[in-house]
Amino acid sequence: MSETPERLHMSGIVKRFPGTVALDGVELSVRPGEVHCLLGENGAGKSTLMKVLAGSYQPDEGTILLDGQPYAPATPHAGLAAGIAVIYQELDLLPDLTVAQNLLLGRAPRLGPFVRRGQRAKLARAALDRVGANFPVSARVGTLPIAAQQLTAIAKALTADARVIVMDEPSATLGESELEAVFAVIRSLTAEGRSVIFISHRMDEVMDIGDRATVLRDGRAVGVYDLASTRPDELVAAMIGEAGGELVGATDRAAPRGEPLLSVERVHVPGLLDVRDLDVRPGEVVGLAGLGGAGRTTLLRALFGDLKAQVTATLGGRPLKVASPAAAVRAGLALVPESRKEQGLMLGLSVSRNAAISALGKPPWLLPGRAGQRLTKPALADLGVKASGPGQLVGQLSGGNQQKVVLAKWITRGGIRVLLLDEPTRGLDVGAKADLYRQVRHLADQGVAVLLASSELNELTANADRIQVLYEGRNVAHFDPRVSPENVIAHTVITGAAP
């Protein structure tokens, strides 16, 4: 393997931003036909390095060779033309265009000045079929679920004749069957001699699909590992700079007792959801498990008044009225949504203004800067938000740090009685997950009732006091993770029937 020529070699890459050095002499080499995993905590420099590779950022120092030739793209378009396709965690699709238009934007087959729509649709269909997607190419991207949008972005990369395909957290929104389809695509690409750079925080995925891994920490490459002879805990230790470390914290509190704080008799959305008899006690973390489309997000949005639903429930023994998100907030509910970029944050505002907006109750442009900074400092510090300062734009933070700011917004406001968490660790690294769950447990210890929806079953079994399984819009079983093996819960998640 040592004599295999390099497809990509990045040497001595330095990238500075005001107040910080994001990349400090990074080295990365990728071979033809290889799945090379890029690992590191949020803020380690992974996304910045890939933006340098794509041509979105220009490095301050360093060189790049692509198949042995100098490569210095001035723009992402130049990078794509050279054979570098990047699928970012925050998708760069155009929501008002169709799937077919997105897949072949700027490259659609033409007859003179006219787009050959039939041929474009045929090419788009072939790309979607390759990733196992069954939605129509005529659908507007903005109307698709997040998982379908992710598959669209992957298919878009396949329509370009790329030599290197970068996948930044491609599985964050995918179900098990969708993920298997993506892995099959990756294996077919590498069999053709293409190279894949795979960024993920899920160690099982890394060990399953990867050949080698480069670990970044604090803007530096700290090691390159042959995954066939490396244990996951070694990779985690390299990422966080400590021996050992766990992916998630462990529930060591006694199971909460007493009367429920939130008692759901029924939440009904015709054709989508029919959840009955779900209770959460003060201080209790109840996990919501299920496959993609099982209804977890729909349930949380319904409870938060974010979609039209029949909700029959009590909060503290009194009827819960959630005609709107504002009404839910007044009642003491807080939602950390699945899509932080679209629903949880104002990316053009500072970290402190985002974190203070719920507490101060004013339009963001009227929020006093210094008052917001003083108010939000404790929550941001407790969650370990990494930023150059409270005035940094939240859109400039890594995805994991953005998620922490969403939670900080509710912690700063205070008065939370029920915390609704929808995939709160999507895109978070090992350390960030531990920080978040530590804060969630701290809130629970103060009497907050928590509903936690996650696709990561190991996180639910480690952090939830009870687990409710949703299947095709219904809650079909419940488990105490202290006494139920994870494989029993997983069986129910997949089949919808407890053994």
From TrEMBL:
<keyword id="KW-0813">Transport</keyword>
<keyword id="KW-0547">Nucleotide-binding</keyword>
<dbReference type="InterPro" id="IPR050107">
    <property type="entry name" value="ABC_carbohydrate_import_ATPase"/>
</dbReference>
<keyword id="KW-0067">ATP-binding</keyword>
<dbReference type="InterPro" id="IPR003593">
    <property type="entry name" value="AAA+_ATPase"/>
</dbReference>
<dbReference type="InterPro" id="IPR027417">
    <property type="entry name" value="P-loop_NTPase"/>
</dbReference>
<dbReference type="InterPro" id="IPR017871">
    <property type="entry name" value="ABC_transporter-like_CS"/>
</dbReference>
<protein>
    <submittedName>
        <fullName>Sugar ABC transporter ATP-binding protein</fullName>
    </submittedName>
</protein>
<dbReference type="GO" id="GO:0005524">
    <property type="term" value="F:ATP binding"/>
</dbReference>
<dbReference type="Pfam" id="PF00005">
    <property type="entry name" value="ABC_tran"/>
</dbReference>
<keyword id="KW-0677">Repeat</keyword>
<dbReference type="InterPro" id="IPR003439">
    <property type="entry name" value="ABC_transporter-like_ATP-bd"/>
</dbReference>
<feature type="domain" description="ABC transporter">
    <location>
        <begin position="8"/>
        <end position="243"/>
    </location>
</feature>
<feature type="domain" description="ABC transporter">
    <location>
        <begin position="256"/>
        <end position="497"/>
    </location>
</feature>
